[in-house]
Design goal:
This protein is mainly alpha-helical. The protein has 9 helices and no strands.
């Protein structure tokens, strides 16, 4: 059990490493696929939320395994369009931080939400994440490549969360559930730190 806990927490920590490797791109520098790809990797808040989406999808199982991440990416694209259009969306950073807290808590508490409710919550948070990406997206031709970049990066982080759930699940039903819930707790606590501007 200690080995499974250690593996799960190390995997969760490893997903945060890209935040060290990328600088958050400034609005004037946001251009092309590479900058779009870097944006979701540029902060622990985005990384944790995206990975938790994948873990949550794995935890729900069945159709949710692909519907939850797909819904997030599609609704995030709509949020990105709002950001590009200059539509004011209040509390974007708060919404992003709350997504980490809520998703972490849902995983920690092993909430078996109905699929429609899960998609609704995921969609709500996706709007905030998308708006943050879109607000930095250029309006010229490089904007499409930038959008493709942040969508691909998001999908890869979701895949990392699904893989994390699978790896933890291999530890056995009892140990795997414990490690998954521990990972959710760590994410929720980190989200509170982000919300309080401590991280």
């Amino acid at each position: 059990m200690k080995s499974a806990l250690k593996s799960g927490l190390l995997a969760l920590a490893a997903t945060a490493l890209p935040a060290v490797a990328y600088a958050h791109p400034a609005t004037g520098e946001a251009a092309g696929f590479s900058h779009g790809f870097a944006h979701p990797m540029s902060g622990v808040d985005h990384i944790l939320a995206m990975v938790m989406v994948g873990v949550f999808a794995f935890q729900l199982g069945g159709r949710a395994t692909w519907l939850v991440p797909a819904t997030f990416v599609l609704v995030m694209a709509l949020g990105g369009a709002l950001g590009v259009a200059g539509t004011d969306l209040p509390f974007v950073e708060t919404g992003i931080a709350l997504s980490v807290v809520v998703l972490g808590a849902v995983i920690a508490l092993d909430v078996k939400a109905p699929l429609a409710a899960a998609l609704g919550v995921i969609g709500l948070f996706a709007v905030f994440h998308g708006h943050a990406h879109g607000a930095e997206m250029p309006e010229d031709a490089s904007g499409a490549a930038y959008a493709a970049g942040f969508m691909v990066a998001t999908a890869l982080l979701h895949a990392a969360g699904l893989a994390l759930g699978y790896i933890i699940g291999r530890a056995g039903e009892r140990q795997g559930a414990f490690v998954t819930r521990a990972a959710g707790s760590v994410a929720a606590i980190a989200g509170v730190g982000i919300l309080a501007d401590l991280i």
